[in-house]
Amino acid sequence: MSMVPAREIVRDASARGYAIAAINCQGGNYDIVRAVLETAEEENAPVILMAYEKNTEYYGLDWLPTIVSQLGRSMRVPVAVHLDHGQDVTVVKRATELGYTSVMIDYSTRSIEENIAATLEVIEAARPAGISVEAELGELQRNDGTPMKAAENLVDPGQVRRFLDGAPVDMLAVGIGNAHGFYKGEPDIRIDLLEEVQKVSGDTPLVLHGTTGIPEPIVKKCISHGMAKINFGTLVRVNFMTYMAEEIAKEDEHKGHIWRVCRKAEARLKEDVRGIIRLTGSNGKA
Questions:
Q1: Rounded mean pLDDT of 26-48?
Q2: Catalytic residues
Q3: CA–CA distance, 229 with 222 (Å, rounded to integer)
């Protein structure tokens, strides 16, 4: 396995019209990481494994790069390890010292001036080590089961070029009606707004967050309009927990052995990961 900066595989995807699947692994859960790596190898697909900053409070900040390195020793596909939605500049800078090949600093809730300043600070720490940097414009909402408030997280295309000129990131996440969690009803993803962003973002690959629940044809439209990194989190973690609960209930099959439960849950999760990889078009691209 080749541990690479995310920009290497994301820029190739951007140039060739597909996207990279970026999958949240809950801070480095062994079974999720293994499911993602094995499936990426089977699909001959480059992939990004991610941990939210909050996830790392349980496993530790260094756990995800450590377990990816160990599990991926015999694999051939290029893999990036990404810290997602870093809220604390100090934590994000620390991640650049612990084996992450990509980091995100998310100051999308702040003013554009604060966002640029924080992102530049991270870039200065990451670039000398060859580590990729992602930032965000347009704060992503979190679905809580109620209808989303219209237009709260829409990126301003007029700020995109200003931001990129001030903080030349490797990837830029933008809010176009997407949100984290499960959507209530079909989400209103603004492809027209994405088209405007694409006109001013130059050759900077764009990132789609909150993909769980977005119809596949819309995801593919996003990819065709410059989104070359597609993030999945909710689908993966919820399905894995469901599979674990269902397998634990089969006492006569596992007889109290947790590894048997994990093995079966992982096998089921791999099919979800396979679907994600094929949706992005990254299969066969490693």
A1: 97
A2: 84
A3: 10
